[in-house]
Amino acid sequence: MAKNFLTEENFEKLHKVIDEHKDMQGPLMPILHEAQHIFGAIPIEVQKVISDKLNVPLAEIYGVVTFYSQFTLEPKGDYLISVCLGTACYVRGAQQLIDKIAEMTGVSVGKTSSDGKFSLEATRCIGACGLAPVLTVNEDVYGRLTLEDIPGIIKKYQATN
Amino acid sequence: MDFYRSHVLVCGGTGCVSSGSLTIEEMFNAALKERGLEKEVKVVRTGCFGLCEAGPICIVYPEGSFYSRVEQKDVERICDEHLLKGRIVTDLLYIDKLANVTDIQTSINDVTFYKKQKRVALKNCGVINPEIIEEYIAFDGYQALGKALTQMTPQQVIDEMKKSGLRGRGGGGFPTGLKWEFAAKSHGDVKYVACNADEGDPGAFMDRSVLEGDPHAIIEAMALAAYAIGAEKGYVYIRAEYPIAVKRLGIAIAQANAMGLLGKNIFGTDFNFEMEIRLGAGAFVCGEETALIASIEGERGMPRPKPPFPAQKGIFGKPTIINNVETYAVVPQIILKGADWFTSFGTEKSPGTKVFALGGKINNTGLVEIPMGTSLREVIFDIGGGIPNGRKFKAVQTGGPSGGCLTSDHLDTPIDFDTLTALGSMMGSGGMIVVDDTNCMVDFARFFLDFTVDESCGKCVPCREGTKRMLEILEKITSGNGSLEDLDKLEDLAYSIKDSSLCGLGQTAPNPVLSTLKYFRDEYIAHVTDKKCPAGQCQDLLSIVIVDGCIGCTACARVCPVNAITGAVKQNHVIDQTKCIKCGACIPKCPKKVIVKQ
Q1: In this complex, do B199 and A68 lie within 8 Å of one another by their Cβ atoms?
Q2: Are A152 and A135 in contact (CB under 8 A)?
Q3: CATH code for residues A79-159
Q4: How many domains does chain B have?
Q5: What is the mean predicted confidence (pLDDT) over B547-576?
Q6: Which residue among A23, A136, B154, B421 is the one 20 to 30 A from B162 at the CA level?
Q7: What is the ipTM of this complex?
C-alpha cells in the first residue's frame, strides 16, 4: 500500500473529533470509530495522538484497537469482499464461496492483495439470512449466490481501476 | 391531512434493501408522478415484513395484495394495472405453496406464513414508516409512557412488569420485572438503563428488524424502564454492522427529542430522560452484559465476575439495567394493555410471544413471531414451509453458538425457555437454523466452535484454551484422523469448560458439541471408525469415483494434475484412490456427470 493516509488534513479532523468527544463519559470507543472512518485504519501514529489527548496509556488503546474486529491497524484494500459466514449462510454453502474467491483473487481470508485492490474477510452474520448465502463488496450486496456467480462478481471489480 | 386511496408499502428492512427495494421505491414514486397519481397513491417505506425469502416485498392496500420478488420491470405494470385500473396483477403475487388451494391469494392476510403468527414485538414492523414519529403515535405510540408518568408510580410499573411474567428475550430468560426491581432498590445518585442491541448470534436478526421497523417502541420502553428505576440516561449499545438500524434509531431519538418525548419534563412531569447510541465494534462477547458495560466505558469488552450484578454496579459503577431489544419492544404494550393481556398468550412459565429467525435449509426464511408453546413442527413446517428441494429434515439448531441441535424426535415439543433447556439446547436470542441430510453434524459443531474460539475474549483459561483444544479435536475428526478416545476427551473437556468458565460465552460454548454428541453420536462414530462422512460434507473423508455411465472421452484424465485417472479411449475410466488428491478438477469436465464424491 503506497497510499498515504496519514495526511495532515486527516490528523486535523482527528483533533477535532477528540475535542468534540473528550468531555463525554467513556469517549474512547466513539473516537476510535471516527478515527477508523477518517483514516481507514488506526495505526500506531493515530493511537499516539489519541493517547496524548485523552491521557490514556498507549498500551490500553492498543489493547482496545486490537480487541475489536472492526478496528484495523492497516487500511483495507479498495474493494473489501466480506463473505458472510453466519450459520444460515454457512449451511447454504458460504464456505465454498469464500474458497473460490480466495482462489480467484489470490488473497487469503483476513488479508489484502499486494496491489491494495482486494481485501477478503469472513464476516459473522450481516442479518440478511433470507438471502443466504450473502457477500458484500464495499456497499454492494450480493445474495442467493451460487458458485457460478462468483467469477462474474470478481471480474466486475477486477476490471475497474 | 391528505387522503390517499391506495398505499404501496415497500419493505425497507435489511433483507429487502439488499435485494434492491430502495430502487423499487424510487421507481414507484417516479412512475406514480408520471401518471399524475402522486396525490392519490402514497408509497410508504416500512420495516421488515418477515418473509425475507420473498423479497423485495411490496404490499398494496386497501386490498392487501402481496407482491413478492418485485423486480424493476414489474413496477410499471403494478402502477398501470393495479393502481390505475384497479386490476390486481395476479402473476406477480406471492405464491403460497403451503395453501392447498388453487385460488390466488390476493391478500396478505390469507398467506399461510402469517396465519399462525401473533405479532406483538413485531406489531408495527411492516406497518408504519419507522422514520415518521406521527405514524408510531397513530398506532398508540407513547401512550404507555403517558399513562405511566401521569397515572402510575414507578413501583406500579415494576409490579405490572412482574405480573406480566415477561422474561428476557436475549437468551437468559431472566424475569424482567425482577431485574427492574433490583435496580430500583439499589442505592445510587445516578442510574442508567441500557439496551443490548449487540445481536451477535449469527443467524438471528430480530433485534435488527425491530430497531429498523419500530425504533420508537424501544425509546418508549427505555423511558418506561428509566421511570421505574429512577434513571435519567439511557444507552443503546448497537452493532456497527447494522447501519440501517443505527440510522433509524438516530432519527427516532432526534424526533422524540423535538417533540418533548425525550428530554426535560416529559409529559409536563418532573421526569427527565435522554438517550445516546453507542456502537459496538465487532465483538460477540459484548452481548454479555458485563462485557457490554466495559465496552461502553471504553475498554476491551471483557466480562467480569458477577456479583456485583449490573443492577448494583453497572455502567460507570452505577446501578444499571440492561435489557435486550425484543424485551423492550413488548414493554409499552404490557403497560398500556395490562399484564393480563400479555399472559393470555404463551405458556404459564413463559408468557407472551417470541420472535424466531428462521434460516438455513428452509423454504420460508425470515422472521416469525409465535406464542410461546407453539411446537417446533408448526414453526418449521406450517409456517416455515418445510425443507427445500425435497430433502429430509435432519435437525434444527436453536440458540446459536450457545445452543444445541434438536432432532425430528423433538418436533412436537412446545417451545418455551424451559423445554428447550431441558433438551440440551436453549432459546438464546431466537435463531433457528434448519439443516437437512446433506449437512454434517460434526462439521456443524466444528463451525460453532470455530466461531467461539474466534470470539473468546481470552480472559479466562477454560474458555480461551479449552475451546481451542475442542476445536482441534473436531478438526482431527472431520479430517479423518480421529479416534473413539477423542469423543470421550471432547465430552470431558466440554463439561469442564461449562463448569469453570467466567461468563455465559464459555459456559455455553460446548453446547453445540454436547448436543450433537448426544443426538448424532452415530455420525461422530462414522467419522472416527469408518472414516466416512455420512452427509458427504467433510471433504477429507470423501473419495472421488467414476460411477456407471463413463463413455471414455478421456476429458477427466487429461485434466487430472496427478495422473490418477486411467483408462483407454471409449473404455471405462477409473480413479486410483492412492494417487488422487481430491482436487475435484475432473468433476466439471465430465460430460456425462458420472464423476461423483461419495
Answers
A1: no
A2: no
A3: 3.40.30.10
A4: 5
A5: 91
A6: B421
A7: 0.90
